[in-house]
Design goal:
The protein has 442 residues and is of the alpha/beta class. The chain has helices at 16-27, 31-34, 49-57, 80-98, 117-130, 170-176, 188-194, 226-232, 252-265, 289-299, 360-366, 373-376, 382-388, and strands at 6-12, 38-43, 67-70, 103-108, 111-113, 134-138, 155-158, 166-169, 202-206, 211-213, 267-268, 282-287, 313-317, 324-329, 350-353, 370-371, 395-398, 405-407, 418-421, 434-441. Strands 3-2-1-4-8-6-9-7 form an 8-stranded mixed sheet, sandwiched between helices.
Length: 442
């Protein structure tokens, strides 16, 4: 990619020290790589403009052509998730509409970058043009714990938007723009993952991250918190530019074929057998969403949801034996699992909307059937919700026992949104402000 095609945008709010550290790491990149990009710092907090502009000005010799963009229009909502979302909307609009770039990379100021960060994007950008099943390139691995990742040259596909240093094409922004949420209840990035806008498309990520999070005083990361400790223990690649080799193995057909062959050759075990794994062995492990959190904690990967997954497949190493584990979701990963290990929805199920403040237990009873929690996970998707509700304010993600649901109350920030959940849905949850989507069986 050339400078006429791509801008790297640093998203900054009010921390001059963080901006300086972030820009310093970018400025240390190889000159040849820096010449392939335009650079910009995007600001959204007027009281901090002068301090942040001064920092940016000091880097104009080491990051030639560095621009400063200012978002002066302020959000009518004070919620941090809204302000952050609106800043990203501004930066995306500035990049793809006003400057008409073909590609853009977005990087927050609380990140420093690896030596081959810019090269990584230069080497992989062609994949977005050639493979319609991809929409982003990310520098981050949510499971990039120092004790688990070692192969700097391994890049993988994921359906779970990683963020933390990411590239998209101009055409992708025009798909996202009409549905960009006014109130992304748990953040714009969660909306992008769970909103069902770019379904059946994914991203690529490196095994060893190309960005590292350093700030402990942010909106989501607090000093000494468990998240801060997790981020501090993430690896940062030291690989030098031009070391990745041929990346054509990431094209969908070739990637899935290789994954299927790897799974076929692996030793099939159950979740309970994971502690008995042996070094230098590859294992295929079927799992259910209901048991993922406990399993993930034991493996030292993100427990809340299957981050990094590709069609339900999460690949990682055992933290003790370093055995290679191919964790495969019984509901989603039928393309690599033996048929006997796959869970499928009941052919006799009834899917329908409950009344406000009605649980799925009560809805199914009223329908002459019964609720089975195992069936609910199959419909915990935006496409199912849109079939039964209007979802006027879009589809997003949230937490709560009454999800998946449609928010009926006009008093809620999420009013008229459809919401999915990261947790395994239950039959008993209900709320007076929502209508649940339920699945019943005879």
């Amino acid at each position: 990619v050339g400078t006429d095609l791509v801008t790297l945008v640093v998203i900054a709010h009010d921390k001059a020290d963080c901006l300086k550290k972030c820009l310093t790491s970018l400025a240390e990149s190889r000159d040849e790589d820096k010449k392939a990009f335009k650079f910009a710092v995007s600001l959204d907090h007027p009281p901090a403009f002068s301090n942040l502009e001064a920092v940016a000005e000091s880097f104009k010799s080491s990051l030639p052509g560095l621009e400063v963009w200012k978002k002066t229009e302020q959000s009518h909502m004070n919620a941090a998730v809204v302000k952050i979302s609106e800043h990203f909307r501004f930066a995306l609009t500035e990049t793809f509409e006003r400057r008409e770039n073909e590609f853009a990379i977005f990087l927050e100021t609380d990140l420093v970058v690896a030596p081959d960060f810019l090269w990584y994007f230069r080497a992989s950008a062609w994949l977005l043009r050639m493979d319609p099943t991809l929409y982003c390139i990310s520098a981050w691995n949510d499971n990039g714990n120092k004790d688990l990742v070692f192969n700097d040259k391994r890049i993988f596909r994921t359906d779970y938007f990683p963020g933390l240093g990411w590239m998209i094409e101009r055409k992708t922004w025009f798909e996202l723009k009409p549905q960009w949420p006014a109130f992304p209840s748990t953040g714009w990035d969660h909306w992008l993952r769970h909103g069902g806008i770019l379904e059946d498309r994914g991203c690529i990520s490196p095994e060893v991250p190309r960005t590292h999070h350093f700030d402990e005083h942010g909106t989501n990361v607090k000093k000494k918190s468990s998240l801060a400790k997790t981020l501090a223990n993430m690896a940062l690649s030291k690989l030098q530019p031009e070391s990745l080799g041929d990346l054509s193995y990431l094209m969908q057909e070739e990637y899935e074929s290789a994954l299927q062959e790897k799974a076929k050759a692996a030793t099939l075990i159950q979740v309970a057998d994971i502690p008995q794994t042996q070094a230098a062995t590859t294992y295929l492990v079927p799992y259910s969403r209901e048991e993922y959190t406990k399993m993930a904690k034991s493996l030292k990967i993100v427990p809340g949801q299957p981050r990094t997954h590709y069609h339900g497949v999460v690949e990682t190493r055992h933290p003790t034996t370093l055995a290679w584990l191919i964790l495969a979701d019984r509901r989603m990963s039928g393309f690599i699992l033996p048929p006997s290990e796959v869970w499928r929805p009941s052919l006799q199920r009834l899917v329908g909307p409950a009344r406000p403040n009605e649980s799925c237990e009560d809805f199914c009873t009223r329908s002459g059937q019964r609720c089975v929690a195992k069936e609910l996970a199959f419909i915990n998707q935006c496409n199912f919700l849109r079939t039964h509700f209007s979802c006027e304010a879009g589809c997003g993600q949230n937490l709560g026992a009454d999800l998946p649901c449609y928010v009926t109350s006009s008093k809620r920030d999420t009013s008229r949104q459809c919401l999915t959940t990261d947790a395994a849905p239950t039959c008993s949850g209900k709320h007076p402000d929502t209508q649940r989507l339920c699945a019943c069986v005879p």
